[in-house]
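Researcher: We plan to redesign the surface later, but first we want a full-length starting point. Tokens attached.
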């Protein structure tokens, strides 16, 4: 008989059908090719509660949707059908029909939302038969973050939200990139397995250090480079939090216009214009860099484009929307001859940006 809560009388079963459950186990399975090294994985098997209150050994996933063959609580059936569809979408049809278990790591971040939905609908999480394993799902996803403390020497740790589990618990990440974790520990004669999802995937660059809980130390000599180069590139993938208020990864990030100049076949110049953010220390983050997502100040970008006299010498380099203050940079390559237009451009470059408060001026032609 499978472990977990059970009814002792068929009259206690909910109206609308038999309750459904998920048999949750931690097993060792081969990893991805080519190495296929053994890894511990969380697997899910469907089950249903019988009239006597015990749980069936297993329920084939492809039979869950058959309401005539296996009458079940509708909300529970819908949740498990959604879980099966998500976990088997990558398989051919014949494999979907014979599927007996789903691997939680293959469900991705969407799997946690469906799993929470199933538990709210009353789906029981039970351990394998005779294992004495009690399974729980944390009700909220962990808001993972990179936590940085220190002012000169920096200390860096990854907060996975696993502080809700006992310190002695064994832990493991779920998925690649990781979208959740499992924890297992023993209390007396009871073995416990707990699951918790992440609010966003954990970057693979942090995977090897995430579970160690041993701080990474950045010496003072490298701290500024770490703040200005490394943190902005992580900022779009993981939340960055200061443990003591001393670290601000976005400070002094100002928009600038980057001009790439190259000679062409006619001895002229090709100019490519792009917006970027200057982080100091010769570090420029362009808008096509994922790190720019956490740096962008669109109002400051528009003010910059409106104020640069340099752009008047390059027709079509900037465009303006219906409202005068809405400017953006056009994706145009400018070809200049080696004659007078280069001298005009140099003169414009030497001029100061006009005051934005004086108005943007006429639309460039």
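Model: Full-length starting sequence:
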């Amino acid at each position: 008989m499978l472990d977990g809560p059970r009814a002792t009388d068929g009259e206690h079963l909910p109206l609308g059908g038999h309750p459904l459950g998920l048999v949750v186990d931690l097993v060792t399975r081969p990893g991805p090719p080519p190495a296929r090294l053994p890894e511990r994985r969380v697997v899910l098997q469907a089950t249903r509660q019988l009239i006597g209150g015990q749980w069936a050994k297993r329920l084939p996933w492809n039979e869950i949707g058959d309401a005539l063959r296996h009458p079940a609580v509708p909300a529970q059936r819908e949740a498990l059908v959604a879980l099966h569809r998500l976990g088997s979408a990558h398989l051919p049809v014949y494999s979907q029909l014979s599927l007996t278990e789903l691997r939680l790591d293959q469900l991705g971040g969407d799997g946690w939302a469906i799993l929470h939905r199933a538990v709210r609908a009353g789906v029981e999480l039970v351990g394998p038969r005779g294992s004495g394993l009690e399974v729980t799902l944390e009700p909220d996803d962990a808001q993972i973050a990179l936590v940085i403390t220190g002012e000169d020497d920096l200390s860096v740790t990854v907060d996975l939200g696993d502080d809700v589990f006992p310190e002695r618990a064994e832990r493991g990440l779920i998925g690649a990139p990781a979208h959740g974790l499992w924890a297992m520990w023993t209390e007396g004669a009871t073995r416990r397995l707990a699951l918790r999802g992440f609010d966003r995937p954990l970057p693979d660059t942090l995977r090897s250090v995430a579970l160690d809980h041993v701080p990474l130390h950045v010496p003072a000599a490298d701290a500024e480079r770490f703040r200005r180069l490394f943190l902005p590139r992580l900022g779009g993938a993981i939340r960055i939090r200061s443990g003591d208020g001393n670290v601000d990864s976005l400070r002094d990030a100002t928009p600038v216009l980057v001009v790439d100049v190259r000679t062409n076949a006619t001895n002229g110049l090709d100019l490519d214009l792009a917006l970027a953010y200057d982080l100091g220390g010769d570090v420029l983050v362009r808008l096509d860099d994922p790190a720019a997502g956490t740096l962008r100040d669109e109002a400051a970008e528009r003010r910059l484009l409106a104020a640069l006299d340099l752009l008047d010498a390059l027709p079509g380099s900037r465009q303006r929307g219906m409202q005068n203050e809405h400017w953006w940079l056009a994706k145009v390559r400018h070809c200049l001859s080696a004659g007078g237009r280069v001298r005009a451009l140099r003169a414009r470059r030497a001029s100061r940006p006009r005051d934005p408060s004086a108005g943007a001026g006429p639309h460039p032609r």
